[in-house]
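Final report, results section. Input specification for complex C-07:
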Amino acid sequence: MTHKELLAHYREQVEGALEQSQNAYPGHGLYEPCRYLMSIGGKRLRPSMVLAAAGAFGADPAKALHAAVAVETFHNFTLMHDDIMDKAPLRRGMPTVHEKWNDNTAILSGDAMFVQAYDALAKSDTASLPALLRLFNQTAREVCEGQQLDMEFEQRNDVSIDEYLEMIRLKTSVLLAAALQMGAIIAGAEEAQQKAVYDYGIHVGLAFQLQDDYLDAFGDPETFGKQVGGDILADKKTFLYLSALQFSDHGQRKALDGWLGQAHDPIAKVDAVRSIFLATGADNALKEELSHHYRAALTNLEQLNVVDDSRGLFRYLAQLVGERAV
Amino acid sequence: MTHKELLAHYREQVEGALEQSQNAYPGHGLYEPCRYLMSIGGKRLRPSMVLAAAGAFGADPAKALHAAVAVETFHNFTLMHDDIMDKAPLRRGMPTVHEKWNDNTAILSGDAMFVQAYDALAKSDTASLPALLRLFNQTAREVCEGQQLDMEFEQRNDVSIDEYLEMIRLKTSVLLAAALQMGAIIAGAEEAQQKAVYDYGIHVGLAFQLQDDYLDAFGDPETFGKQVGGDILADKKTFLYLSALQFSDHGQRKALDGWLGQAHDPIAKVDAVRSIFLATGADNALKEELSHHYRAALTNLEQLNVVDDSRGLFRYLAQLVGERAV
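Structure output:
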């Protein structure tokens, strides 16, 4: 099996387990929005990584399916609540839960979905449950902290690049890292190995998010999947934006400031801000940061005592962000 | 020590543990609203019952402190989110979190508080953790289901008394019952004993809520703690209201319907609706239902193999609602 096929195989197993998990709850009322959000897709990368890590450390990946369901269900819970906070109308091209129903439903069904995640986790082997629960709690807390920082940054004009990286570490990387470590825990891997695979996940996660920042500004509209320039139009303080600010001369900074809050000519705004990203070298700064995390991920990978095939899978995953797309 | 003193002693232990638990998180940002809500009080009855049940089944109550913190933290999380959904301006006489901050903060800090509850639970003995987690998850799910029913009932005109009782069982009783069973689990009580103390908690919880319904209409404004007539003014479909509807003649039903949605003369409305409650015998129907649950709670109590003092404490608690106040 190629790495791509193996990932597809894990994903298929995950989809089956997610469906089975959702079917254990009534299809109406409180649980209908959970089933809806879960059914509209997603790449299922995080839960697939739970299986991949379990397999890499020598366990039957099927043993990790409950933990995988927990991770993906938790992720969807955060989407349901984040979309309320961000007043987002669409998610994966479909109406968000608070749009299709209302805010109260999205709050309460989100809470129920959070419990569903713990429900799935509780089905794990008794032996690994305490460690899984501790890691899951820590991760859930950090994801909330990341969303909190993200919201705070919207109100601040002095966000540093380090603060931004810490925010995306919390908001997006820790869950991928935890997914990998959970697989390692289930396979009974040593703590040092757990840490190495966790750190690999952090760096891959950061690289993914940086890649997303890049593609939002410079991606191919045909393949990006989201509106190119969306971050620019939303005045998001991304890595590109913060780097551009840092490297800008007086005129560039004035131009950047001038576009803030402007909405009357979106095409001109995206074009102009993108030009400043290039002129200030923000794009290169991003590529360097991304490359740093790609290399750090590969270094973590070297520390793993896993079956060789698995290292290849993890390397393939890192390469998806490290080499191809940016 | 009298039962009252013992309860006060448990409460003091709980207060200390709650403070310690909150102090383990940063005092600003995401966690400040959690600390705020936790600090504005509450009777801490549920967490005290975790300690009481652990002691009753022969364990050191201190062993149950983490589970007690989990129960009270979860309870406060539900208050934070329920207050958003109910647009409640005040909680325990103080501004609610979404009023003092905003909706997004109350959503996200509520989520963080939910994780804090699981954080506390995860500190329990490894031996009892799987059973505690399963019960806690089930309870959390049911509490969400209860809130969902409560919101649905606001939109419906055909709520039956049985449906109402099921709603308050989910929304308020299961957490008290689970608190008691968690203490029993920690003490290693047999499953039949766990079930008996859980059922005792269900009946006491229902009796408490029915007493609350009664006092809302007929309580002494000096001692009730909330605005007397609050449920009537909010057109709440309480046990009294649903019973009055069921037992009303044509004129009484017309009068009840006429007051729905009326807000121009609150004093007249409360007086008139209260009179209909009395005229239809809704007050007696409530007293009978309450008495049924009081007696059922005492029957469950007889099945418990606990130290005699503890049975006395549980009886004292049931009597608080069963005999004195209504």
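The beta strands of chain A are 90-91, 94-95. Chain A touches chain B at residues 29-30, 81, 84-85, 103-104, 107-108, 110-112, 114-116, 118-119, 122, 126, 129-130, 133-134, 136-137, 140-141, 144-145, 147-148, 151-152 (CB under 8 Å). This concludes the modelling results for the funded period.
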